[in-house]
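chain below, 299 aa
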Amino acid sequence: MPAAPAIRLHRAVKRYGSITAVAGLNLEVPAGTCVGLLGPNGAGKSTTMRLLTAQAIADEGELEVLGRRLPEDSKAARAQMGVVPQQDNLDEALTVEQNLLVFTHLYRVARAERREAIERALALAKLGERRRSKVDELSGGMRRRLLIARALVHRPRLLLLDEPTVGLDPQVRQELWALIDRLRGEGVTMLMSTHYIEEAARLADSVTIMAEGRAVAAGPPAWLVAEHAGREAVEVYGPAHRLAEVEVDARRRGWPARRTGTSVSILGTERLDGDLPEGERRTANLEDVFVLLTGEEIE
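prediction:
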């Protein structure tokens, strides 16, 4: 019998006045996997995270986390999860080690186990040599690693990462990816919201693409690409009038296509009939799927 999912949302709805931030979202996160929520700003990713931590209460739908119903059993669920917020909320008056110690108290780690818990978290985040540094002395990447270490100090069954690498430069982002990938390899269940396509493709076992508060597609990255964009694409470059002609012709033929500022991509070319326009042949990717399904351009 398959294990119950770590997270289950069924027709979840969250409204803020006239704005519906989450609009009937269905989402499952199997235990021991990493699921990525991919979408542009305003897609409902962060609101979904707030629903799962009971910082926001759903107006409709069913929500379960680690077998606990929300919001009724949210306190018990929170005790078994770690949360890495989008906004840095570390205590800058404390050292790295002191920030972790505070959270061992908040999560009621037994006194005899606190030292080991802190050492393990420091080792995971590679911050052992900075244990006595004040938070305001850390680089942006170190602060992000400390946020993740803090979320892991009580050995949670589930880790929620809300835009974990937002605002970081590519090199630092790679460092964070290595840490998240290591946790993924250890079997930690993770739900990670992001608007970086490469991040979702690199780290997630399965990706849910969100737009306007709904899931518009879900599955392993490779499957999503094969299902929606095919194996190959032709990228056509040229002046604006040429690109417009290619778009019109693609629509007339019923070919899947996506537009960027400087090109039009014809997708799934291996299964299309007719003369394709001249262009650069390349492998289809998750970005193609995202733009095709949402019409949005993201980093």
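The longest helix spans residues 170-185. Residues 9 and 63 are 5 Å apart (CA to CA).
thats it, cya
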